[in-house]
Every structure is written in C-alpha cells, then in structure tokens.
C-alpha cells in the first residue's frame, strides 16, 4: 500500500495551517512553506474544504485555516478524504468481490481484515497535534 502524493500534500497543508494557530494562510504561503506546487495546493484545498477539515476565506487577505482543532483531526480522516480506497485488498471493498467466491471462509481475507484494522487504528490514533508535538 502506498499513499498518493496528494495525500501527503494534504497532510502537509493541514500541518502548515495548524502551525499558524488560527491565522489565515494564503495558498502561496502554504506552497512555499511546504514545498508543494501551488496548483496542487488549490486543488487539494477544495477537497479539504468539502470535507470540513479546513475553511476558505475570500478577499485580499484570504486563504485557509483549520476548521477543527489539531487534536480533532486524525490522519485517518485526511487519508479517507484523499484516497479513493485504502483497503489492502480488493476483497475488503464494499462489494466483497472475490474471484473464487470465498469471502465467508477465506483465511487470507481474515488476515487482511485484521491487518486493515491495525492500519486504520494506527492512522486514527495519530492526530495533527501529535505530529506537531513530535517535531
């Protein structure tokens, strides 16, 4: 499993905003601080605004700020916004697709479920505040 670069960028964007402690930050500033191309900042912030993780402010002094406290935003929330799927195997998707029709009695799938739960638990334990505090 490898996260998309846009997911990494989304985490960096939220970190940049958290480090500014409620201040409105321009897309240009985020781009320069986090070394993300500005076109990606603008694209990714649309998704983060729609997910209500950040807010957009318009106008001359416009930009972005967190919509929640850093301790209320987990990495799992960000990943789920940015990744089309984060399941370790196709059989864990909603449709339970299995090419051998063995979803109910597959030992490999049981392993995947346990592994998936561990991954999601770890991602949900880590908040933006945790990342800031562990500099």
Automatic annotation (TrEMBL):
Question: Could you tell me which InterPro entries the record lists for this protein?
Answer: Tscrpt_reg_Rrf2, WH-like_DNA-bd_sf, WH_DNA-bd_sf
Q: Name one GO cellular component term.
A: cytosol
Give GO terms: molecular function aspect only.
Answer: DNA-binding transcription factor activity
Sorted alphabetically, which PANTHER family does this protein's record hold? HTH-TYPE TRANSCRIPTIONAL REGULATOR YWGB-RELATED (PTHR33221:SF15), WINGED HELIX-TURN-HELIX TRANSCRIPTIONAL REGULATOR, RRF2 FAMILY (PTHR33221)
Read off the NCBIfam families from this record. rrf2_super (TIGR00738)
Q: What is this protein called?
A: Rrf2 family transcriptional regulator
Species assigned in the record: Megamonas rupellensis
């Amino acid at each position: 499993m490898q996260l998309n670069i846009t997911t990494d960028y989304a985490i960096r964007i939220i970190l940049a905003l958290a480090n500014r402690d409620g201040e409105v930050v321009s897309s240009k500033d985020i781009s320069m601080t986090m070394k993300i191309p500005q076109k990606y900042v603008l694209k990714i912030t649309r998704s983060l605004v729609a997910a209500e993780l950040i807010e957009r402010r318009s106008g001359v002094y416009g930009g972005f700020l967190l919509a929640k406290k850093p301790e209320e935003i987990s990495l799992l929330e960000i990943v789920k916004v940015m990744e089309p799927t984060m399941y370790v195997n196709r059989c864990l998707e909603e449709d339970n697709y299995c090419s051998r029709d063995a979803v109910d009695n597959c030992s490999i799938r049981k392993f995947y479920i346990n592994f998936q739960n561990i991954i999601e638990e770890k991602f949900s334990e880590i908040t933006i505040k945790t990342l800031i505090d562990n500099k």
